[in-house]
Amino acid sequence: MTQSALLTPHNANIRAQFPVLKQMLDGYPLCYLDTAATSQKPQIVLDAMAQYYANDNANVHRAAHQLSARATLSYEKVRDQLQHFLKAKRREEIIFTHGTTESINLVAFGLTAQLTAGDVILIDSAAHHANIVPWQELAKRTGAVIKPIPLDKQCRLDINAYQALLALKPKIVALCHVSNALGTVNPVAQLVQLAKAQGAITLVDGAQAVAHLTLNMTEIDCDFYVFSGHKMYGPTGVGVLYGRFDVLDNLAPLLTGGEMIKRVSFEATEFGSLPNRLEAGTPPIAEVIGLGAAITFLQTELTEQVQAYEAELLNYLQCQLHALGEVHLYGAFDDNIGVVAFNLADEHHQDVGILLDQQGIAVRCGHHCAMPLMHSLNLKGCCRASIGIYTHKDDIDRFIAALASVKDLLL
User: Catalytic residue among 155, 176, 222, 369, which?
Assistant: First the structure.
């Protein structure tokens, strides 16, 4: 695989839009391979948020003056963008939250009245803690029973085991689209179809998918799909809950107060309609506007050519790690997305990460908020290198050279 095959002028133009990537760390150019934790932000996102604060700063939906009108228009325009981006049927199916974690908590809390003791909740064994703990809390409130969906020996979701668990008629099935720890891609449309055939409510965590894949809620057909802005080149502090209108409209609100009401008296309160009913309080206005800019960026730059480039680059990363020797890869497949999980021999992942950082290489080390998955792999943790739309072959080569020096030092 040649440099020219991987490093196209178009990708170079994309990278130039990210100011943070131009910096030096201790004399080394920054090599950012931690996009799965949070992506960097292009200039268009920074400019959109600065424009709001400099010129349109006002609360939304609540005032008659021009600043509020402009802020409200910009805020609600992003809901329309997301409807198109996700191919949702209605704009009211888009709820703004503060991130994937809040989105899942909102759903888990909102379903409380719909569960009874003994109801089964199935959870993907590779799930992020944010797609485990809220369901455990729901089970505590209702007496429901949590059952993990096992993985097979290749760290893929075990379809046969999944179908056997579906025979229990679960009330809820919680899946991840792409594993944040391993990069494994689930066939979510198939998994959702099987779950719905048994009458289950389905939620898909798309936090690791949204920056890499073209999404279509009609094709996936899940009841809920959740993700965060900061993993798709947008700001921190904003996320999205997509829900099919009928199931979304039956959720009890997690937060109550201003904005989400229709009428309040000291005798009773009548909640408003969607989407306001699930968006209590002042929303993250600047962050939503920044998210809109990130969507524009992705719709412009995440072409089929760039998606193919990312896949080729990840495969190159896997091959180079194999070739280095003394490196253990976990769940490494040609169809993985964005992430490679590895350890260097028996060395502690944190030691490896610190030594890489001293050479300007940023990777993630730890359990990756997936402790049940780490336990199933008999690991206390691992290193994770993750790529984004701005990653170059040069980044991979620098990382491999740095890891080789760490190997020489430690082994």
Answer: 369
